[in-house]
Amino acid sequence: MAYTPLVFTGPVRDTARCGRSAIEKRQTEGVIALSATGLAGDEQAEKAFHGGPDRALCHYPREHYDYWKMMYPEIEDRFVAPFFGENISTLGMTEETVFIGDIYQWGSAVIQVTQPRSPCYKLNPLTDVSDFAQVMQDCGRTGWLYRVVGKGDVSSDQPLKLLTRTSAVSVREAAAIAFHLPFDETEYRYLLQASGLSASWTLTMQRRLMTGKIEDFNRRLFGSAAAV
C-alpha cells in the first residue's frame, strides 16, 4: 500500500499564540532533501523536546481534523493541515494501522516510526482550549514521529510505501500503554520489546520499571504553570 503525503516545513518564528515556535508550517512543493535531522528548511524551537534523530519528522493523519471540527465547531476553520505543526499529512494511515518500527520508503529516503507524538502545552494556546493537549492525549489522536534510516530526496509526488513491519505494537497501543493504562510492568516490557522504539520512550519505560511509578504529565501538558 502506498500513501500520498502532503509535506510541510517551517522556520522558528514569533507566533501570535505559541510564542517563539516553528509550529506554523507551510505546504512545500517540489523535491526536498531529507537528512537525519529532518527536512531542509524545517526547524524546531525547543530541541530538548522536539526534533533530533528519533523525532526528525512528525506525521499527523488528515482524517483526524474532521474529529476536531466536530469536537470544537467554534474553531473548526483552524483544523486544516498542518495546524498541529506536522511535516507529513496523509489519508489512510492512522494510529491503528501504523506500528512502532514500521519502515517506509519515501522517495529515495527510508524512514522508521519511533513513537507516538507526546502532546505538549503549546497546543492549548494554539487552539484557545485550556486543556487541548490533555484531550488529544486522552483520545489517542496524537500522530507519530520518525527517524531517518536513510537520507534522500522526497516530495509530495512520492508516496510512502511500507517496506518492513518490525513489531506488533501499533502506535495507538503504544500511546495507550504510555498515557492511558495504570502502572503495569508487563505492558512496559512489552513496549520495550518493540524494535525501533525511540531512545526517549525506551528511557521513560525503563525509568518506570526502576522507580515503580508513572511520571507526572502536567508540565508537558500544561507548561511551567502546572508545576507551581
From TrEMBL:
<dbReference type="InterPro" id="IPR052353">
    <property type="entry name" value="Benzoxazolinone_Detox_Enz"/>
</dbReference>
<dbReference type="InterPro" id="IPR011037">
    <property type="entry name" value="Pyrv_Knase-like_insert_dom_sf"/>
</dbReference>
<dbReference type="InterPro" id="IPR005302">
    <property type="entry name" value="MoCF_Sase_C"/>
</dbReference>
<dbReference type="Pfam" id="PF03473">
    <property type="entry name" value="MOSC"/>
</dbReference>
<dbReference type="GO" id="GO:0030151">
    <property type="term" value="F:molybdenum ion binding"/>
</dbReference>
<protein>
    <recommendedName>
        <fullName>MOSC domain-containing protein</fullName>
    </recommendedName>
</protein>
<dbReference type="GO" id="GO:0030170">
    <property type="term" value="F:pyridoxal phosphate binding"/>
</dbReference>
<dbReference type="GO" id="GO:0003824">
    <property type="term" value="F:catalytic activity"/>
</dbReference>
<dbReference type="InterPro" id="IPR005163">
    <property type="entry name" value="Tri_helical_YiiM-like"/>
</dbReference>
<feature type="domain" description="MOSC">
    <location>
        <begin position="26"/>
        <end position="163"/>
    </location>
</feature>
<dbReference type="Pfam" id="PF03475">
    <property type="entry name" value="YiiM_3-alpha"/>
</dbReference>
